[in-house]
# Entry
Amino acid sequence: MSLLNPSDNETNGRPLDEHQNNDVDDTHREGRRRLEKEREEINLRHKNDPRPPAEPTIDDLESRVRRPLPSRRLMPEPQPSDHIHSPTHEDEYPYGKLTRTQYETLEQRPMGFGINFSNQTFPRPFVPTPLLLKNMKDYQRQQATTDANNVLALVPFGAGPRWEEKYSMRALVAIRDWLLQVDFPDKGKCQVSKAEAQSNKDRRDFGNPWTIILYDISANFRAWLLDLGVVALSEPGATFMVHSFDEGKMSWVLLNFCGPAVEDKEEERLEAL
# Structure
């Protein structure tokens, strides 16, 4: 329909039907009602919304409204004299100790040595008993645990399949000769036996077992060797550490960090921690 040409109200020479005009008016009225209803819902929603209206965004930092920071309670500085959370059983903590600390209290001490060694004080190594017994054959494990007060575990530095292949024959002879030539009263027979692997599956260069079992020794000789802790011999591969098979020697490690994220350098290890 055109306002400029009234004849457009006719179709094929006939005027538009009145019902058609009414339909157009009804459509307009329905549209207005929907629009008014939507406006009422929007107004009602704003009235019931407890949140304050959003503040306009201000791009200039200096022109923004400055609000005071909430008051926070500062933590007091720690006082070393008030610290009460340190471990109380320091004598049970196995790390950070030294060898040869009980030498003066031993009942018997050696009179001399047939083979020279580095009779010095070292940091005391600690290996939990489960690691000393790991992958060891059953009969040797039983021997070490049932007679724990009369045997000792000797662990060479670098123990494992690589050490066995390269050093074990000559190193075992050197260790046995050194034990036999210690001038010690009533030390026993000092027999040594290298631990046998229960399984060689997935046993890598430093895989267990590591232990050389020392048995048939006296209690006093055993006490001196435990206090000595580390025996450094000149024969390659023969330097060893002395451990007991005490069942109370358990690991104090809570978590091991390993994988490609941990590098060999000291700085990278500290950063990973």
About this structure: The CA atoms of residues 133 and 141 lie 6 Å apart. The radius of gyration is 44 Å. The helical segments are 18-48, 129-133, 138-146, 161-166, 168-180, 219-228, 266-272.
